[in-house]
Each structure stands twice: as C-alpha cells, then as structure tokens.
Amino acid sequence: MDAYTSFAEVYDRFMDNIPYKDWCEYVTGLLNEYGVMDGLILDLGCGTGSLTELLADRGYDMIGVDSSGDMLQIAMEKRERSGKDILYLMQDMRELELYGTVRAVISICDCMNYILDYVDMVEVFRLVNNYLDPGGIFIFDLNTIYKYETLMGDSTIAEDREECSFIWDNYYDKESRINEYGLSLFIRQEDDLYRKFTENHYQRAYSLDEVKMAIKEAGMDYVAAFDAFTRSSVTENSERIYIIARECGKE
C-alpha cells in the first residue's frame, strides 16, 4: 500500500474541518478519568501531528509514531514552528519499538482500521501492552461495520479547491470487511498547472467483540467502549467508537 505520500502534502488542507481541539478535549477527559493527568504519552499513528501538538499544549510529554515519512516531515515542521519538545519516530505500529514505557497510548482517526489482519491487531495490542507503564491506559478509535456498510461503501467523495482537489472512491467488500479507497489528487504546481497523483488505501471493519478478543489475546484488560465523543454505550448505529484498554502483566 502506497498511502499518505502525495496525500501528505495536502492532508491538513482537506482535514481542516476536523475539530481537533474538540477531539483533544475528549481524549484528555478520558485520560484524566483513568488517572493520566501528566507524563509521557505515545500518539500511535500521529500523522501530521495536529493532535500531538494539542496534547503537548496540555502539558503531556509526547512521542509521535507514524509509518509515513511524508506525514512525519510535516509534523516536524509544525514542531519547529511551535518549539514543542516532541519526539517523532517513523515506525510501522506492528513493529513498535520504544526506549522505555509510557503512561498512555492513544491512536485516533481510524489508525486501527488500517490493520487489515486480526493477527496483526493482536500483535499491535501486545506491543502497546509491552510499552505501557503498569496499569497504563490505551485509548483508540475505530470506524464501525455500520459506517462502512451504510455510509461509506460504494460511495464517491469529491472536493474541489483552488490549490488542490480530490476524488475519493470507496469500494466495500462485506465478506472480507475491507474498504478500499481509490484516491485521485490534483495538486497545483508552481507553474499553475495541476499534477495528478493516485493512492490506494485499505481499511478493515472490526466488530467490538473481535476487538475485545484481540485485547484479551494480547494480554491486556478491556475497560470500556463508547460511542465517539460521548460516554454513551456503543449501539448498532454507532459510526465511530472509542475503546479503552489497560496494561496487564507488569507489577
């Protein structure tokens, strides 16, 4: 999968409708509820570092990990402008390797949906458990099966802007529960001509029961699941859910 290369250049422009400050407020609230008021936090799948920067503003010491060098380059440019002391690492989350443990790990904005194999998800959870402090908290979100089947599958999303435009075709396979995104980008160059770039992204839908099972297999404790940005229980019509798990096994 060749993803978040060309898209990295314009990612923040197309994501300017995302209320990152509200997301930060929600995540910070969850962290505080589970006793993480400060300390070292890992943002797993940090992308261009928008949420990482906001959490650093809240006083957390931040590490950002992402597999896309292009996205991390933008994150590091933000760090240079803000002066924040954030460590960025380019790693595949399935091969996560830190220098020590952290108080919490967060993974927001569909990152876990990019894990296409259940066995790989268990491995990611196992590595998270390994690098969490005793009793540390793991908070992550997921797009749901309902969202892929009813809202995204076999749909086309397009947006036209002066500097860049995109066409995003979705193809959802109910049997494999894989959603393929065919992304065509048209980015204006210095000569005012537009260059076309294409990328393919793949995400998988997981049921909450599957995620609970993966958490257990990884040796972690499942804590709770919420309909996104609420403290309400997950329903069959939830589009995005937040899941909290706790480190288990260390003394």
TrEMBL record:
GO terms for molecular function: methyltransferase activity. It holds the Pfam family Methyltransf_25. CDD domains: AdoMet_MTases. Transmembrane segments: none annotated. Coiled coil: none annotated. The keyword NAD does not apply. Residues 41-136 form the Methyltransferase domain. It comes from the Bacteria. GO terms for biological process: methylation. Keywords: Methyltransferase, Transferase. Gene3D superfamilies: S-adenosyl-L-methionine-dependent methyltransferases, Vaccinia Virus protein VP39. InterPro entries: Methyltransf_25, SAM-dependent_MTases_sf. PANTHER family: TRANS-ACONITATE 2-METHYLTRANSFERASE-RELATED. This is Methyltransferase type 11. It comes from Lacrimispora saccharolytica (strain ATCC 35040 / DSM 2544 / NRCC 2533 / WM1) (Clostridium saccharolyticum).
